[in-house]
Amino acid sequence: MKICIDCDDAAVTLKKVIYEHLKSKGIDITDLNYSEGKENALYPEIGFNLAKEVAAGKYDRGISICGTGLGMAMIANKVEGVFAGTCHDVFSAERLRKSNDAQIITMGERVIGPELAKKIIDAWLGSEFEGGGSAPKVAQMRNLERGSFHPEL
């Protein structure tokens, strides 16, 4: 599994913690570091870039971090084919994958500490879409998304 990670200026410390945590576990993770060399890169362009990389199939999953995680989730969900959600607890992180098939998790450095963040990421990466009763709901979300991006269809 190939993972990418990125953050805005409000989450540099947490990004580093998660990156090092996953590297130490032997996980293939890339820090996109979108803002390097760019003056005043804001979270919308950082999160949008990460979501485009995931949507293009360059990465299986992405981790996007800002102050709260909320803005990163909002912008990631503007990329067709991407499902993203903010998680600050383990149960939600599991459900984000198991029930919603989301490829991107977002979180906020101002909301959770580093040890909890590691547990959340581990739970999310250890979960897979279960289908079952959630499959028709995810299919409906995909169909509604298609209609939103391509109203002519």
UniProtKB/TrEMBL annotation:
InterPro entries: RpiB_LacA_LacB (IPR003500), RpiB_LacA_LacB_sf (IPR036569), SPI_LacAB/RpiB (IPR051812). Belongs to the LacAB/RpiB family. Gene3D superfamilies: Sugar-phosphate isomerase, RpiB/LacA/LacB. Pfam families: LacAB_rpiB. Coiled coil: none annotated. NCBIfam families: PRK05571.1 (NF004051), rpiB_lacA_lacB (TIGR00689). GO terms for biological process: carbohydrate metabolic process. This is Ribose 5-phosphate isomerase. It comes from Draconibacterium sediminis. GO terms for molecular function: intramolecular oxidoreductase activity, interconverting aldoses and ketoses. PANTHER family: RIBOSE 5-PHOSPHATE ISOMERASE (PTHR43732:SF1), RIBOSE 5-PHOSPHATE ISOMERASE-RELATED (PTHR43732).
